[in-house]
From TrEMBL:
Bias type Low complexity, positions: 215-224
TM ranges: 14-35, 47-77, 83-112
Species this protein is from: Kribbibacterium absianum
Domain of life: Bacteria
Biased composition, class Acidic residues, residue ranges: 239-255
Protein name: Uncharacterized protein
Length: 255
């Protein structure tokens, strides 16, 4: 973007202005002089223009680059213009005196403008470093605040740790409770020891009764089995007698 022109800007670019004036003057000279020769249509003039065409193109490009350096205020355009002027001199060394002045001035303008650009970049770099440091400090503060907040939340969520005195008192209470429970168990055991023989006698009597009931049950089952066997034998004998009687009756009828 083009910078605003003022007295300070003109003073800073005075070398570029002089180089641009010399280059532009030589461009106008080429247009007027060689344009008239081209209009004459002389063979020698046409041959000369054909030979000088690269020199003219380099001169025009160098003039354009010098104009860009002047209006944009960028030192690198001056450097490019100086190299293009050298290239133009190489294309036609006989006209070196036309381009040597803008070439030297372009180099001088480049070094002067570059030095001023570096001087102007220092405050910008310092401001950028200061801003980066401020951003880093703010970030550290935010991180520290977040860490403190997380620690506070963890402390609030964590259960309260008992004091040493409370721990000792709790341990003593546990020991007393354990001793009381042991004493109660011993008392119950001593009270249960006299009743042990009685329980054993009762258990023995129950066992004898159960054995007697089992014997009676077995005896009744045997008696029922004997009765069933006797009944079946009587029925067999009655059936045999009936068969014999029927056989005897049949024999009598036949006789």
């Amino acid at each position: 973007m083009a910078k605003r022109f003022d007295n300070q800007t003109i003073n800073q670019r005075v070398i570029t202005i002089v180089a641009f004036i010399f280059a532009l003057a030589y461009v106008f000279y080429c247009l007027i002089y060689w344009g008239g020769a081209l209009a004459s249509e002389e063979p020698m003039a046409l041959l000369a223009i054909y030979i000088l065409t690269p020199h003219f193109i380099a001169t025009a490009v160098g003039c354009v680059l010098t104009a860009l350096a002047l209006f944009l205020g960028v030192s690198w355009w001056n450097l490019g213009a100086a190299f293009v002027y050298i290239l133009g001199i190489c294309f036609f060394p006989a006209y070196w005196f036309f381009l040597i002045v803008p070439c030297v001035l372009s180099f001088a303008a480049f070094f002067v403008m570059r030095k001023r650009e570096k001087a102007a970049e220092l405050p910008c770099e310092e401001a950028a470093e200061e801003r980066a440091q401020k951003i880093a400090d703010n970030r550290d503060q935010v991180v520290t605040a977040l860490v403190d907040k997380a620690d506070n939340e963890d402390y609030e969520k964590a259960p309260e740790q008992p004091s040493p005195a409370a721990s000792v008192a709790s341990a003593q209470e546990d020991e007393l409770d354990a001793a009381a429970a042991a004493a109660k168990a011993d008392t119950a055991k001593e009270a249960a020891e006299p009743a042990a023989p009685v329980c054993a006698a009762v258990t023995e009597v129950e066992t004898v009764v159960e054995e007697q009931d089992a014997a009676d049950t077995a005896k009744q089952a045997a008696q029922e089995a004997t009765d069933k066997k006797a009944g079946s034998e009587s029925a067999t004998e009655v059936a045999f007698d009936e068969i014999v009687e029927e056989s005897a009756a049949d024999l009598e009828d036949k006789q």
